[in-house]
Design the sequence.
């Protein structure tokens, strides 16, 4: 991200909208979708940092995050979120894998059109972020406390604010940032 | 039929952008920076990477629209066909072939990118930014393709429509809609 600030901007804005901005799905639910897809893509950095953000939103429940990653069917989450995670898992394998029956099952549990849309786009976006992070062979420290701290901060402040730590600052006054 | 009620008159990603304008904005901006803004890789080369990855992901809408944009930049539809079928035989630079190898590895998964592939691209003169942008273009199309197919968007088999879209994308880039509704029945 810091290597190419031009592309970091829309990438952070997209994450902010999908995961942090107000939505009928809670930030915790959306971070669980991001974490689950990143685990399916075997991306250590993304599953750990988004898992930490999810836990921060969910009263620090790291056990729930672990359970969603390994077997979401048995996790203590809503039936609606389970059907959305099924859709997310299909998207991870390929867009065409999503079936009308998967979508119908989510609707039956009360998922709205926007929630289905956002689930598909979160899952698709993490198929990008995960490949970006691993494809460049980025440094991914294995230090759980570091991710925990960063998770709490990101859960509170969001992605655009956090990105100011590593992106060059410009036109702050002009943009009213 | 799309999985959710998308605007019926718009094809592919255009319908998803119209359904959710908030997310359309950064998605358009990212494509514009990666494919259209000044870069040491030409727009034609970058569109070839985009259409190649989309063909590997079997996304009809993306491979056809970005293929059409590449044709506009390169003036040759034969090159695009060859890149889809077997890029090693296409009349493109050795450097671009190395970058397409990296893009193909990203399509399989980020961890599939090998040091050998990156070194091979460097040996052909690829810069760090070019390698970065190749990885991000390929990763981004693993998103766009899944978005378009995951919602089961309408993807008409209409060559003239894609040719018109390709012209718009090649000329204007990605910040404005590429479909002119008044031209459609």
Sequence:
């Amino acid at each position: 991200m810091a290597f190419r600030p031009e592309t970091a901007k829309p990438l952070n804005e997209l994450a902010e909208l999908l995961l942090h901005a107000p939505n009928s799905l809670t930030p915790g639910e959306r971070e669980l979708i991001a974490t689950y897809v990143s685990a399916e893509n075997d991306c250590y950095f993304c599953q750990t940092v988004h898992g930490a953000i999810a836990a921060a939103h969910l009263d620090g429940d790291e056990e729930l995050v672990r359970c969603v990653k390994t077997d979401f069917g048995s996790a203590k989450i809503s039936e609606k979120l389970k059907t959305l995670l099924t859709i997310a898992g299909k998207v991870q394998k390929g867009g065409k894998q999503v079936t009308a029956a998967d979508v119908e099952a989510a609707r039956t549990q009360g998922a709205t059109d926007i929630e289905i849309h956002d689930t598909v786009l979160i899952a698709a976006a993490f198929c990008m972020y995960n490949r970006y992070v691993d494809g460049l062979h980025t440094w991914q420290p294995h230090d759980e406390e570091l991710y925990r701290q960063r998770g709490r901060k990101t859960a509170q402040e969001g992605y655009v604010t956090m990105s100011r730590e590593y992106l060059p600052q410009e036109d702050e006054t002009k943009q009213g940032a | 039929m799309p999985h959710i009620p998308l605007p019926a008159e718009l094809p592919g990603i255009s319908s998803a952008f119209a359904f959710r304008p908030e997310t359309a904005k950064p998605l358009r901006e990212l494509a514009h920076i990666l494919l259209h803004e000044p870069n040491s890789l030409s727009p034609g080369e970058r569109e070839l990477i985009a259409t190649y990855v989309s063909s590997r992901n079997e996304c009809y809408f993306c491979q056809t629209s970005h293929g059409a944009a590449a044709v506009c930049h390169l003036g040759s539809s034969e090159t695009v066909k060859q890149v889809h079928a077997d890029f090693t035989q296409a009349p493109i630079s050795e450097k671009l072939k190395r970058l397409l190898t990296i893009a193909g590895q990203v399509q399989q998964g980020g961890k599939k990118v090998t040091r050998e592939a990156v070194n091979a691209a460097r040996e052909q003169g690829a810069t760090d930014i070019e390698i970065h942008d190749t990885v991000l273009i390929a990763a981004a199309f693993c998103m766009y393709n899944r978005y378009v197919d995951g919602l089961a968007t309408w993807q008409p088999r209409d060559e003239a429509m894609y040719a018109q879209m390709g012209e718009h994308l090649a000329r204007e880039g990605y910040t404005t809609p590429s479909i002119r509704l008044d031209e459609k029945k």
Summary: Residues 12-175 of chain B form a domain with the AhpD-like fold (CATH 1.20.1290.10).
